Amino acid sequence: MNRVLIVDNSPLIRSSLSKQVEDRNDQFLVAGTASNGQLALDWLDQHYADICITDVRMPVMDGIELLRQIRQRYPWMVCIMVSSYDEFSYAKESIQLEAVDYILKPIDPDILHATLLKSDAKLQQSRYNAAHKLLLQHLPSHRDLLTKWMDAIKTVQHETMPLLIVDALDTLMQWTQGRHYLLNALSMAWLNLLAEEMKLENLEIALFEGVDRGLGEPLLAIDQVRHYFRLCAVRRLEEGAQSFLEMAGNALDQPNRKVIEQMKEFLQQHYKEKINYQQLAASVMLSRNYMSDLFKQETGMTVGSYTVYLRMEEARRLLQSTLLKTYEVAHEVGYEDYIHFAKVYKKHFGYSPMEYRKKLGV
Q1: Quick one: 65 and 91 in the same domain?
Q2: Is 112 contained in some domain?
Q3: Helix (H, G, I), strand (E, B), or coil: what is residue 26?
Q4: Per the domain annotation, does 113 fall within a domain?
Q5: Are 195 and 205 in contact (CB under 8 A)?
Q6: Number of folded domains in the chain?
């Protein structure tokens, strides 16, 4: 989701541009408007934007000076100039200040749409390049983390991935050094590197691409921006890890996979309850002892430890995506005793529920 700031001294044009930006593609959201360059800078002091569409001639501060200030203060942004004047000097200065395009009024919706797509492409390419530069720069000293991911994928260790995702997120956050807008591109670069490495292990893993659509609302500076991009990166890493595990699992020769998947489906439906082992065994038409031995043999986990894994995964999801209190999360996943839940959670992830929320910035 690219957030757009529109700057023009005419309320009518601001309204018209806002409609044109959002009508054609859900990839763009008008996050704010301003009537001159100074008010635009005031808005940017408190909010986040990816793209600025600005008129050239405005009172207080014109569009050329606004572009100059944006280049200095917010170098990640891209700018589009609009003007009623077909003057070469304006276009020349805009190009010198790295504006994506210079569009004459009245604005043709098709031209604006094409320019927005060009702006998005420029944003993605610049962030992709920056992310890969960071990856090449820092990977030699973090090769052990990549190896842990590869080992977990090759052996289909679902239970270890949440902690590895948190470790990767913390590492990528450090690499960005406050440039949170790079997290999505850096997460994709991490997954793509894994994809290439896993091909060396004879696993066919698809490369990851695309952008996050995210939340459709303006972002306040610093805390909200950091929180938003962290959540986008978590989602990207989770989706990537799940795809890796599924493809790696399918590549393994497991003659009893259908039975195991049936058992997992039963546990997924009943993990919040006290598991009835006899009922579970009957659901796959096996004896209780053979069922338990087969599950451990094929998954490396006991039925009980897998049930805990399901509970912890749901608890982590609720802590990440809801405002439920931690004791309410415990109840939601089948624990009446919060203290016991917190101990199990910390043993499973290495963090208490409260520490996990703090790491995510929730």
Answers
A1: yes
A2: no
A3: coil
A4: no
A5: yes
A6: 3
Same domain for 67 and 131, yes or no, is no
Domain assignment of residue 13, given as a range: 2-107
Alpha-carbon distances of 111 from 15, 79, 103, 181, 185, rounded to whole Å = 18, 15, 8, 27, 27
Are residues 141 and 74 both part of a single domain?
Answer: no
Whether 86 and 172 share a structural domain: no
Arithmetic mean of pLDDT, 252-277: 82
The residue assigned the tokens 């002892």 is 289
Q: Are residues 79 and 136 in the same domain?
A: no
Contacts for 159 with CB less than 8 Å, ≥ 6 apart:
301, 305, 306, 309, 348
Give the amino acid at 319: L
Per-residue pLDDT reduced to its tens digit, 51-101: 999 998 899 998 889 999 999 999 889 999 898 877 656 666 777 767 888
Q: Residue 40 is inside which H or E element, if any?
A: helix 37-46
Query: What single DSSP character describes residue 139?
Result: G
Q: Go through the chain and tell me how many residues it has.
A: 362
d(CA 16, CA 18): 5
Reported as a single tens digit per residue, the pLDDT across 207-232 is 665 444 444 455 555 567 778 888 88
313: CATH: 1.10.10.60
**Pick from 17-21, 23-27, 277-281, 284-288: least confident:** 23-27
Residues 6+ away with beta carbon under 8 Å from 333: 271, 272, 311, 312, 314, 315, 318, 341
Mean pLDDT of the chain: 85
Please determine, for residue 352, whether its predicted confidence score (pLDDT) is greater than 70.
yes
Q: φ, ψ for residue 121 (rounded to 5)?
A: -60, -40
